[in-house]
Amino acid sequence: MNKILEARFIAPDIKLFRIEAPLIAQKRKAGQFVIVRVHEYGERIPLTIADSNEEEGSITIIVQGIGKTTKLLNTLEAGNYILDVVGPLGKPSEIENFGTAVSIGGGVGTAIAFPTAKALKEAGNYVISIIGGRTKELVILEDEMKEVCDEVYPTTDDGSYGFHGLVTDKLKELINEGRKIDFVLAIGPIPMMAAVAEVTRPYGIKTVVSLNPIMVDGTGMCGGCRAVINGKTMFVCVDGPEFDAHQVDFSILTKRNKMYLPQEKHSLEKFMCNLDKMAMEVENARVNA
Amino acid sequence: MPELTPKERMAIQRHHMPEQDPEVRNKNFDEVNLGYDAALAMAEAERCLRCKKPVCIQGCPVAVKIPDFIMMVAEGRFKEAAAILKEDNTLPAVCGRVCPQETQCEQVCVVAKKAEPVAIGYLERFVADWERMNIGIQVPEIKEKTGKKVAIIGGGPSGLSCAGDLIRMGHDVTVFEALHEIGGVLIYGIPEFRLPKEIVKAEVDGLKAMGVKFETNFIVGLTKTIDELLQEYDAVFIGVGAGLPYFLNVPGEHLNGVYSSNEFLTRVNLMKAYDREHADTPVFDMTGATVAVFGGGNTAMDAVRTSLRLGAKKAMIVYRRTEAEMPARIEEIKHAKEEGVEFILLAAPIELLGDENGWLRAMKLQKMELGEPDASGRRRPVPIPGAIEEIPIDAAIVAIGNGSNPIISKTTPDLKVNKWGNILVDEATMKTNKKGVFAGGDIVTGGATVILAMGAGRTAAKAIDEYLKNPDVW
Ligand SMILES: Cc1cc2nc3c(=O)[nH]c(=O)nc-3n(C[C@H](O)[C@H](O)[C@H](O)COP(=O)(O)OP(=O)(O)OC[C@H]3O[C@@H](n4cnc5c(N)ncnc54)[C@H](O)[C@@H]3O)c2cc1C
Ligand SMILES: Cc1cc2nc3c(=O)[nH]c(=O)nc-3n(C[C@H](O)[C@H](O)[C@H](O)COP(=O)(O)OP(=O)(O)OC[C@H]3O[C@@H](n4cnc5c(N)ncnc54)[C@H](O)[C@@H]3O)c2cc1C
Ligand code: SF4
Ligand code: FES
Questions:
Q1: C-beta of residue A41 within 8 angstroms of C-beta of residue A70
Q2: What is the pLDDT of residue B2?
Q3: Of A85, A89, A221, the CB nearest to B243
């Protein structure tokens, strides 16, 4: 049981939680994640540790409500408890001084990229951050990124804020301007990461993506999170989640992530109908435990 | 009642285990075996010859005093029977259900020479269930506190048995478990219809009542390392199980609809996907599906029978050798057949074929024949040239065993492991090369059995107790 110390929406459907987790706060490094379970019949979902505070013994997670579990999680408030939080999982990001590094986040991917961008800066890189959103409200963590990066470029698909276009358009612009780019980190929806990989491939720019397969245990025990990297099967929860973008088979990942589409849809519909009832279930679980 | 003569005892037929009808049970997750009642148990107990040299005890990895407890059952003294059982076995309700008795105690039972062996497993189960349901699990005597602290890594059978012994010896014991529930394979692997979770929970509650502390959601190596634990604890026992699923390494294993048995069983058991109404964790919709399970062990039988219960129309076991070589318990194979599982023997998958959306649609099987015996003495299956068959399937479950999960070894570089990642120990004491650190169960032996894991936990507990008294000797 982990207590929520702070909970606030930072964009529509995107909520930031600061939760008590002293041991994880001590151990975690940029790029690692936790697995969370919200109620007795709940599923285990992976969420990146966006930040931590060792003194307070807390970690920060940023959650986009897209399905049953994330939406349920996003109904919780400060003072509530999360049933299970386990970690830190996955390999930490490989941080070195590459020179100039570009961190690209699409949607909630920016939250996942944030800790690594921060670590890249701390390691001496010149860090450029591209923050993509469909529309203005979905551009997140701009202020936080500004604090840890040298340049920050918000982009929106509809042109409502910042650069009008996709994150890849902004990246191409930087490359065409002749900026020397030594390293790219791209985290977001699979099509975005695949597109970034294609932009940097011809230039041979080292590019890292963070994969988001469906997970269960997060410890290498089930193999459900397997992805194909350079023709080889890897377990993303222990061998990743970060991999060389130029070696990832994005097509297999895309298909595997659709494995439970009908069940997820059903689960979400049922949840939306029962939102009140479900919130009560959580409340009861909390009281009982 | 007058004492029976051995001859009279031998004349009594083994009493059948009452069970659910196969056509009913293959659609529900309730326990298949219903258990003896007191009358059946007492009648079966009369079959035991009370041998002067009870060889059955030698057949039991933890040396349960079998004839002693059976004699108590015969007299209807079930409470005493339970006390005798538990002197040697921490989890009798579990072992009575899942031990391979046919290769252990019952194999060597003297009665087996002429008739069917005494149903030692069924009697063990009866006694443990009787205790739990009638008087509650009794808390055994606990020695005066020693003030020494032991950390147990992993809440599976090896860890639980080690914890149970150490707490009785008066030590302070904390079990660290990676998952959100305690029990290891007993909780996430072995299905409800073979081992109700309630039984595992009751056993764990028994340990809690004895003072064992449990920390779930704690991955040793990641949340804290062994070296960090050693700063707080006087000794550490590693019982982390196998926990790294092997795949076949054939093309198509990434297709949707292909599972490792660990993933499939974890979704259904630990994550409760069998309860579609309530559980959020999804599992492949087996309704009307054709399923192939690769392997011939207990895990394969559990996966195939679970598939049937989730609604599969056709569920098959695909195994490289013949039924005689199957490592599964005989009862599981028998139950699987009764429930309608098909067996494709002497065949190995060489490819999984998918459709354009990445879903499994068929398997390609290579037919085998038995060749020369291999190192283990079993005849090696060899491919019959050209004998390849394609069979349409909707789901496939790979149940060919587990390697050792590297989290502990990677985060404890000075711990010696063999080339498969199994921790190296001194078998008499379960000591590793690292001072204060012991290990046992599947992480040492590779995938084995519940009772061997428990036996290892016991051996370690004894050695840990000695080490705590004399920590300078390693
Ligand atoms: C290493 C890693 C880090 C992540 N970090 C974050 C983060 O910081 N913030 C954030 O909002 N999201 C993050 N995600 C994604 C997040 O885990 C999924 O959005 C969440 O599991 C969806 O669950 P749901 O029930 O709400 O939606 P569902 O309706 O169940 O699923 C929606 C989609 O999410 C994916 N998904 C479903 N179940 C899982 C699962 N158990 N594990 C992983 N993906 C799943 C599937 O692709 C699915 O199509 C991360 C994923 C991974 C693998
Ligand atoms: C499906 C299935 C059916 C089986 N059927 C039978 C049967 O009928 N009869 C029989 O005798 N045997 C059976 N077995 C085998 C038997 O279950 C195992 O041999 C036994 O459980 C091994 O016990 P263990 O304590 O070594 O490990 P496990 O039971 O594997 O328990 C290890 C525990 O350690 C935890 N862990 C792992 N890493 C860490 C870490 N770093 N930090 C903290 N915790 C950690 C795991 O989550 C797990 O809970 C079966 C196995 C399976 C998979
Ligand atoms: S060997 Fe068989 S008959 Fe002899 S004591 Fe053991 S259980 Fe009884
Ligand atoms: S989530 Fe189970 S192995 Fe990665």
A1: no
A2: 66
A3: A221
Provide the residue count of chain A.
Answer: 289
Q: Do β-strands A33-37 and A45-48 pair in parallel, antiparallel, or remain unpaired?
A: antiparallel
User: What rounded mean pLDDT belongs to chain A?
Assistant: 93
B196: which 2 tokens? Answer: 């109700």
User: On the CB side of A177, how many CA atoms lie within 13 Å of its CA?
Assistant: 9
In the block, which residue shows the tokens 């090696």?
B380
Element (H, E) at A151: strand A151-156
Residue B117 Cα: closest atom of ligand 3:
2
- Total-model pTM: 0.92
Q: How far is A14 from chain B (nearest CA, A)?
A: 21
Q: Is the pLDDT of residue A278 over 70?
A: no
| Residue A222 Cα: closest atom of ligand 4 | 2
Give the percent of chain A with pLDDT over 90.
Answer: 85
pLDDT at A251 (0 to 100): 94
Q: What confidence score (pLDDT) does residue B137 get?
A: 82
Q: What value does the mean pLDDT take over residues B213-222? A: 97
Task: Give the least confident one: A270-274, B89-93, B241-245.
Answer: A270-274
CB contact under 8 A, B178 and A86: yes
Enumerate the residues of chain B whose CB falls inside 8 A of the CB of residue A37.
180
Which of B281, B294, B356 should we substitute to test contact with A (largest number of A Cβ atoms within 10 Å)? B281
In DSSP terms, B437 is beta-bridged to B236
B271: confidence class by pLDDT, cuts 50, 70, 90: very high
3-state secondary structure chain B: CCCCCHHHHHHCCCCCCCECCHHHHCCCCCCCECCCCHHHHHHHHCCCCCCCCCHHHHHCCCCCCHHHHHHHHHCCCHHHHHHHHHHHCCCHHHHHHHCCHHHCHHHHCHHHHCCCCCCHHHHHHHHHHHHHHHHCCCCCCCCCCCCCEEEEECCCHHHHHHHHHHHHCCCEEEEECCCCCCCCHHHHCCCCCCCCHHHHHHHHHHHHHCCCEEECCCCECCCECHHHHHHHCCEEEECCCCEEECCCCCCCCCCECEEEHHHHHHHHCCCCCCCCCCCCCCCCCCCCCEEEEECCCHHHHHHHHHHHHCCCCEEEEEECCCHHHCCCCHHHHHHHHHCCCEEEECEEEEEEEECCCCEEEEEEEEEEEEEEECCCCCEEEEEEEEEEEEEECCEEEECCCEEECCHHHHHCCCCCECCCCCECCECCCCECCCCCEEECCHHHHCCCCHHHHHHHHHHHHHHHHHHHHCCCCC
The confidence score (pLDDT) of residue B136 equals 85
Helix (H) or strand (E) holding A131: strand A126-133
Nearest to A27 among B223, B271, B405 (CB): B223
Query: Is the pLDDT reported for residue B233 higher than 80?
Result: yes
ipTM of the complex: 0.90
Mean pLDDT, chain B, integer? 93
B241 neighbors B184 (Cβ within 8 angstroms): yes
Q: Is the pLDDT of residue B144 over 70?
A: yes
| Residue B14 Cα to ligand 3 middle (Å) | 13
Lowest-confidence pick of A78-82, B2-6, B7-11: B2-6
Model pLDDT for residues B300-334, shown as the tens digit of each residue: 999 999 999 999 999 999 999 999 889 999 999 99
Is pLDDT above 80 for A274? no
Q: Compute the radius of gyration of chain B from its Cα atoms.
A: 23
* Sheet of strand B379-392, all strands in order from the earlier edge strand to the far edge: B347-354, B360-373, B379-392
Q: Give B217 to chain A, closest Cα distance, Å.
A: 5
